[in-house]
Structures are given as C-alpha cells and as structure tokens.
Amino acid sequence: MNILGIESSCDETAAAVVEDGRKILSSVVASQIDIHAVYGGVVPEIASRAHTEAICGVVNEALEKAELTINDIDAIAVTNAPGLIGALLTGVSFAKGLAFSSGKPLVPVHHIRGHVAANYLAHQELEPSFVALVVSGGHTSLMRVEGYTDYKLIGHARDDAAGEAFDKCARVLGLPYPGGAAMDRLASVGDKKKYKFTAGTVDGAEFDFTFSGLKTAVINLVHGETQRGRVIDDEFRADIAASFTETLVKSICSRIKLLLEREGAQNIVLAGGVAANSHLRAAVKATAEAFGAKLYLPPLSLCGDNAAMIAAQGYYEFLAGVRGGTDLNAFATKGV
C-alpha cells in the first residue's frame, strides 16, 4: 500500500511516499530556515505563505522521485494537528483538494504520532507496545504506545518545550537560527559544571516537564553579565550551552529513570527534532542501558519535521479506519 504524506505544521513543507508504513519510496523537504533566520524564529504568516508557494511542487517532486502517479497512491495522509494553524491549514486544504479530485481516501495524522512513527521507518522490527519520548521545538511528551493508534500520555511540558528553550537560549547568546545545532556543538566543548542551573518539577505531576525557569535563569545570567560589561565570547557561550544542556538532559532522563524504576525494563523510543541532540541521545541511551531497556533512535535525517513519518503513521491510521472528509479541519493544539 502506497501512502502519500503531506507535512506543513511549522516551517518545513514536506511530501513523501511510503510503502506499507515501513519503506520510504521518496521524501522531499522544502526548508524555510533562510526565510526565518533574519527574524531569529518562525514568523507564522510568512511560514503560511511559503507553504502555499512550495506545496504543489514538493508533492509533485515526491511522486516523481517515487516513480509513481497519483493513480498509484492508495491514500493521502496529512498533518492536521498540532502546529501553527495557518501552516497546518495550507497542507490540510491542499490534501483535501487532492484527495477529492483523485478519489483517494484522506487520513488525518497527529504530528506527535508522526514523530514516533519515524522509528518504524528506521527499525523494521519495532512494534508496540513501548514508551515514547518526543522532544521537539513545540513538545516534550512522555507517552505509552500500546498500539499503533493507541496512545496514553504519561507526562508533558507545562510551559516551554525543550526545543523552544534551546532556541531562546541560543538567541540570547547571539547564535544563528536555528539554535539547537549550535548549542549542541558548543556544549561539547564547554564546561558543563561552570554554572549551576536547575530545572523545575511540577507538584503533583512527577512525570511532567517545566523548562521555563531554566530558560529564564540562562537569560538573566547573560543579561546580568553583559550589564556588568562582560563580552559574550566563545568560551562564555560554550560554558552556558554546556551547563544548560546538562541540566535539561538530566531533567528529561530523571523522568525516564523514575518510570523504569517503577515498571522495569521495556522498549523506549526517542523521537522529535531535539532527538538529534548528541547529548540527549547519549544520556537517554545510558539511562536505558542502566535498566536493561532497549532504546530505539531515529536517524538524524528523520528527527526533524518530514512527511515520511506522516505517511508511515498514516498507514496505520488508515488500517484503523481513520478517515477525513472535505470538512477536515486543522487544530493548533490537540491531545495525542
């Protein structure tokens, strides 16, 4: 079964064709990084316009690279939540029109489920049940995946997601957008014990995450140092990046450790854009190994937003009978 996936939840216009939820036949991503870099972050209105300009060409290219036509497609999967509402509506509207005109079934896909499904493309043996940790620019969620379409939320970010905190700290340090990759590189050479930061906990919700205080501590430190006349040089940036990363990663791993202490060894899946962070990957791997748990990691190429993961999850949603009609809407926020 060939699924055409369409993804436009933020600043990547993407289309892909995936066979039987496991084999990538094509994957095309049109990035908007250069467009938004001048602003230091994603501008929603500009993102929506860029999606509108790119989506037709991206979908056509995905079909061409798969050496298929729309007639060879069995269903069209599209991200309809969560994300930037204007960006989502661009993809949803295009997918609805394409599905209606071609007579193909339309399958709505939750973006977070798509990130988890990226691992199905990389690990053919992976099947539910497992625990999934999704860490991205807009989400930090710990979930139990009982079936391909059966998700139970264990914990989530109450304020800034991990990726958002990375980007905001990178901005105050004067690093180029997107800041996650630069923070990763600097953290590898900085002194992670130079600054004592803490990441908070949520009273009564021990598996939830909060990174707003950590982010604010970094911003206040940088502002305080610059007001005293300190120059933000490479050494200062590296030490901040290392100390911040160490604190954030330890906070995330503490939730995984608590879960494994209570429930014992089980399969763990890491996913999302921040899953590309080398320090997070290494720390989660070490935590899993300490408890005899099996860890599944997506390749770096499938960590960020892409349509192959949407097509992969779309296959399983299709098998579960999930369908969307011409009244399918998009949602900026929606439970997994």
Protein architecture, described:
With 336 residues, the chain is of the alpha/beta class. Helices cover 44% and strands 18% of the residues. The strands form two sheets. The protein has a five-stranded mixed sheet with strand order 3-2-1-4-5, sandwiched between helices. A five-stranded mixed sheet has the order 8-7-6-9-10. Strand 9, helix 9 (278-290) and strand 10 form a beta-alpha-beta unit. Helix 2 packs parallel to helix 3.
The CATH architecture term of the largest domain is 2-Layer Sandwich
- The sequence of SSEs as H and E is EEEHHEHEHEEEHHHHEHEH
Instruction: Give the fraction of residues assigned to helices.
Output: 40-55%
In the CATH hierarchy, what is the class of the largest domain?
A: Alpha Beta
CATH topology of the largest domain: Nucleotidyltransferase, domain 5
CATH superfamily of the largest domain: ATPase, nucleotide binding domain
Strand percentage: 15-25%
Kindly give the count of domains. 2
Strand-pairing-aware structural class: alpha/beta
Number of strands: 10
Adjacency order of strands in the biggest sheet: 3-2-1-4-5
What's the overall average pLDDT, rounded?
96
Q: Give the terminus-to-terminus CA distance.
A: 25 Å
Short description:
With 336 residues, the protein is an alpha/beta fold.
Core attributes:
alpha/beta; 44% helix; Nucleotidyltransferase, domain 5; five-stranded mixed beta sheet; globular; 18% strand; 336 residues
What topology does this entry show?
Elements: E1 2-7, E2 12-19, E3 23-31, H1 33-37, H2 44-65, E4 75-81, H3 85-102, E5 106-110, H4 111-122, E6 130-135, E7 140-147, E8 150-156, H5 162-172, H6 179-187, H7 212-227, H8 234-263, E9 268-271, H9 278-290, E10 295-296, H10 308-319
Parallel strand pairs: 1-4, 4-5, 6-9, 9-10
Antiparallel strand pairs: 1-2, 2-3, 6-7, 7-8
